[in-house]
Amino acid sequence: MVPLSALMLSVLTVDVGIQLVILNRIWRSRKHKMQQELHEEEQLTRYDTMPPAEQAKGWEFKILRTSGNGFRGIKTLRRVCQEEAQAGWILLEKLDNHRLRFRRPLAAREQDHLCAIDPYRSYYGLPEELETLMTIAGAIAIMATIGYFSFLKAQDFFGGLQTQAVPTAPTPRRPRAAQPTPPPRKPASQP
After folding, report:
1. In what order do the strands lie in the sheet with 59-65?
2. pLDDT digits 0-9 by tens, 72-101
3. What domain range includes position 27?
4. What is the separation, in whole angstroms, between the first and last Cα of the chain?
5. Which end of the chain has fewer CB atoms at under 10 Å, N or C?
6. How many domains does the chain have?
7. Tens digits of per-residue pLDDT, 104-142?
8. How far is residue 164's CA from residue 162's CA, in Å, rounded to a whole number?
9. How many CA atoms lie within 13 A of 129 on its CB side?
Protein backbone atom coordinates (compact mmCIF):
# COMPACT_ATOMS: atom_id res chain seq x y z
CA MET A 1 0.00 0.00 0.00
CA VAL A 2 1.15 3.54 -0.66
CA PRO A 3 2.44 5.41 2.39
CA LEU A 4 0.24 8.17 3.77
CA SER A 5 3.10 10.68 3.52
CA ALA A 6 3.29 10.19 -0.25
CA LEU A 7 -0.45 10.69 -0.56
CA MET A 8 -0.39 13.86 1.54
CA LEU A 9 2.63 15.19 -0.32
CA SER A 10 0.90 14.65 -3.64
CA VAL A 11 -2.23 16.40 -2.37
CA LEU A 12 -0.26 19.37 -1.08
CA THR A 13 1.82 19.73 -4.20
CA VAL A 14 -1.17 19.01 -6.43
CA ASP A 15 0.87 16.76 -8.66
CA VAL A 16 -1.86 15.12 -10.69
CA GLY A 17 0.47 12.45 -12.07
CA ILE A 18 1.43 11.20 -8.62
CA GLN A 19 -2.19 11.28 -7.49
CA LEU A 20 -3.28 9.20 -10.48
CA VAL A 21 -0.56 6.62 -9.83
CA ILE A 22 -1.53 6.40 -6.16
CA LEU A 23 -5.24 6.08 -6.94
CA ASN A 24 -4.50 3.43 -9.56
CA ARG A 25 -2.49 1.38 -7.06
CA ILE A 26 -5.21 1.69 -4.43
CA TRP A 27 -7.86 0.61 -6.94
CA ARG A 28 -5.78 -2.35 -8.17
CA SER A 29 -5.00 -3.57 -4.65
CA ARG A 30 -8.67 -3.35 -3.69
CA LYS A 31 -9.71 -5.23 -6.83
CA HIS A 32 -7.11 -7.93 -6.12
CA LYS A 33 -8.29 -8.24 -2.52
CA MET A 34 -11.91 -8.61 -3.67
CA GLN A 35 -10.89 -11.36 -6.10
CA GLN A 36 -9.02 -13.20 -3.33
CA GLU A 37 -12.03 -12.95 -1.01
CA LEU A 38 -14.37 -14.24 -3.71
CA HIS A 39 -12.04 -17.18 -4.35
CA GLU A 40 -11.90 -17.87 -0.61
CA GLU A 41 -15.68 -17.74 -0.27
CA GLU A 42 -16.32 -19.98 -3.26
CA GLN A 43 -13.49 -22.51 -3.00
CA LEU A 44 -11.67 -22.54 0.30
CA THR A 45 -14.39 -22.27 2.94
CA ARG A 46 -16.72 -25.09 2.03
CA TYR A 47 -19.02 -26.37 4.72
CA ASP A 48 -17.44 -29.79 5.21
CA THR A 49 -18.70 -30.98 8.59
CA MET A 50 -21.35 -33.27 7.08
CA PRO A 51 -20.99 -35.87 4.33
CA PRO A 52 -21.16 -34.32 0.81
CA ALA A 53 -24.60 -35.82 0.10
CA GLU A 54 -26.11 -34.03 3.12
CA GLN A 55 -24.22 -30.74 3.02
CA ALA A 56 -26.82 -28.64 1.22
CA LYS A 57 -29.83 -30.68 2.28
CA GLY A 58 -32.23 -28.53 4.25
CA TRP A 59 -29.90 -25.54 4.70
CA GLU A 60 -29.26 -22.26 2.95
CA PHE A 61 -26.20 -20.07 3.40
CA LYS A 62 -25.33 -16.41 3.01
CA ILE A 63 -22.39 -14.11 3.55
CA LEU A 64 -22.98 -10.75 5.21
CA ARG A 65 -20.45 -8.03 4.41
CA THR A 66 -19.67 -4.62 5.83
CA SER A 67 -17.16 -1.95 4.93
CA GLY A 68 -13.92 -1.50 6.79
CA ASN A 69 -13.62 -3.64 9.89
CA GLY A 70 -17.25 -3.28 10.92
CA PHE A 71 -17.51 -6.68 12.60
CA ARG A 72 -14.39 -6.22 14.73
CA GLY A 73 -16.30 -4.93 17.74
CA ILE A 74 -18.07 -7.52 19.88
CA LYS A 75 -21.13 -5.27 20.38
CA THR A 76 -21.66 -4.88 16.65
CA LEU A 77 -21.14 -8.59 16.10
CA ARG A 78 -23.73 -9.45 18.77
CA ARG A 79 -26.22 -6.93 17.37
CA VAL A 80 -25.84 -8.34 13.85
CA CYS A 81 -26.25 -11.92 15.07
CA GLN A 82 -29.40 -10.95 17.01
CA GLU A 83 -30.87 -9.21 13.94
CA GLU A 84 -30.09 -12.19 11.72
CA ALA A 85 -31.50 -14.61 14.32
CA GLN A 86 -34.92 -12.96 13.84
CA ALA A 87 -34.91 -14.45 10.33
CA GLY A 88 -33.55 -17.80 11.53
CA TRP A 89 -29.93 -17.24 10.50
CA ILE A 90 -27.22 -18.81 12.67
CA LEU A 91 -23.64 -17.57 12.63
CA LEU A 92 -21.58 -20.31 11.04
CA GLU A 93 -18.19 -18.58 10.91
CA LYS A 94 -16.52 -15.21 10.97
CA LEU A 95 -14.36 -15.08 7.86
CA ASP A 96 -12.68 -11.80 8.86
CA ASN A 97 -13.63 -8.43 10.33
CA HIS A 98 -15.84 -7.53 7.39
CA ARG A 99 -17.45 -10.87 6.37
CA LEU A 100 -19.68 -13.27 8.28
CA ARG A 101 -21.14 -16.55 7.03
CA PHE A 102 -24.62 -17.56 8.19
CA ARG A 103 -26.82 -20.60 7.66
CA ARG A 104 -30.46 -21.34 8.34
CA PRO A 105 -32.92 -24.17 7.77
CA LEU A 106 -34.99 -23.89 4.61
CA ALA A 107 -38.12 -24.11 6.75
CA ALA A 108 -37.32 -20.65 8.18
CA ARG A 109 -38.35 -19.07 4.86
CA GLU A 110 -41.97 -19.34 5.93
CA GLN A 111 -41.36 -16.75 8.66
CA ASP A 112 -39.66 -14.15 6.42
CA HIS A 113 -42.72 -11.88 6.34
CA LEU A 114 -42.50 -11.45 10.13
CA CYS A 115 -38.90 -10.17 10.11
CA ALA A 116 -38.02 -6.55 10.74
CA ILE A 117 -34.98 -6.89 8.46
CA ASP A 118 -34.47 -8.17 4.95
CA PRO A 119 -33.64 -11.85 5.56
CA TYR A 120 -31.52 -11.99 2.41
CA ARG A 121 -29.52 -8.84 2.96
CA SER A 122 -25.88 -9.27 2.11
CA TYR A 123 -24.55 -5.91 3.29
CA TYR A 124 -24.63 -4.37 6.77
CA GLY A 125 -24.18 -0.67 7.50
CA LEU A 126 -23.98 2.29 5.16
CA PRO A 127 -24.10 1.47 1.45
CA GLU A 128 -20.64 1.30 -0.08
CA GLU A 129 -21.50 3.99 -2.64
CA LEU A 130 -22.49 6.41 0.13
CA GLU A 131 -19.26 5.71 2.01
CA THR A 132 -17.26 6.36 -1.15
CA LEU A 133 -19.12 9.62 -1.75
CA MET A 134 -18.54 10.70 1.85
CA THR A 135 -14.82 9.87 1.56
CA ILE A 136 -14.47 11.92 -1.62
CA ALA A 137 -16.38 14.84 -0.09
CA GLY A 138 -14.18 14.67 3.01
CA ALA A 139 -10.99 14.65 0.92
CA ILE A 140 -12.19 17.66 -1.08
CA ALA A 141 -13.11 19.48 2.14
CA ILE A 142 -9.66 18.78 3.62
CA MET A 143 -7.91 20.00 0.46
CA ALA A 144 -10.10 23.12 0.33
CA THR A 145 -9.36 23.87 4.00
CA ILE A 146 -5.63 23.44 3.46
CA GLY A 147 -5.78 25.67 0.39
CA TYR A 148 -7.79 28.35 2.20
CA PHE A 149 -5.47 28.54 5.21
CA SER A 150 -2.41 28.43 2.95
CA PHE A 151 -3.84 31.39 1.04
CA LEU A 152 -4.42 33.28 4.31
CA LYS A 153 -0.87 32.57 5.49
CA ALA A 154 0.58 33.67 2.16
CA GLN A 155 -1.53 36.82 2.27
CA ASP A 156 -0.30 37.60 5.80
CA PHE A 157 3.30 36.92 4.82
CA PHE A 158 3.32 38.88 1.60
CA GLY A 159 0.75 41.51 2.64
CA GLY A 160 3.20 43.43 4.86
CA LEU A 161 5.90 43.75 2.23
CA GLN A 162 6.47 47.20 0.83
CA THR A 163 6.37 47.11 -2.88
CA GLN A 164 7.63 49.71 -5.26
CA ALA A 165 7.23 50.02 -8.93
CA VAL A 166 10.25 48.84 -10.80
CA PRO A 167 11.93 51.87 -12.35
CA THR A 168 12.05 51.70 -16.05
CA ALA A 169 14.85 53.01 -18.19
CA PRO A 170 14.04 56.32 -19.84
CA THR A 171 13.01 55.97 -23.40
CA PRO A 172 15.47 57.55 -25.79
CA ARG A 173 14.21 60.64 -27.53
CA ARG A 174 13.91 60.53 -31.20
CA PRO A 175 15.68 63.25 -33.00
CA ARG A 176 13.24 65.63 -34.51
CA ALA A 177 13.07 65.78 -38.21
CA ALA A 178 14.28 69.03 -39.64
CA GLN A 179 11.34 71.28 -40.18
CA PRO A 180 11.46 74.10 -42.62
CA THR A 181 11.93 77.36 -40.82
CA PRO A 182 9.29 79.94 -41.54
CA PRO A 183 10.41 83.05 -43.39
CA PRO A 184 11.30 85.92 -41.14
CA ARG A 185 8.50 88.32 -40.50
CA LYS A 186 8.69 91.80 -41.54
CA PRO A 187 8.36 94.21 -38.79
CA ALA A 188 5.10 95.94 -38.91
CA SER A 189 5.40 99.50 -40.06
CA GLN A 190 4.42 102.12 -37.66
CA PRO A 191 2.18 104.93 -38.89
Report:
1. 59-65, 99-105, 90-96
2. 989 999 999 999 999 999 999 898 888 899
3. 1-44
4. 112
5. C
6. 2
7. 998 888 988 888 889 999 889 887 778 878 888 888 888
8. 7
9. 0
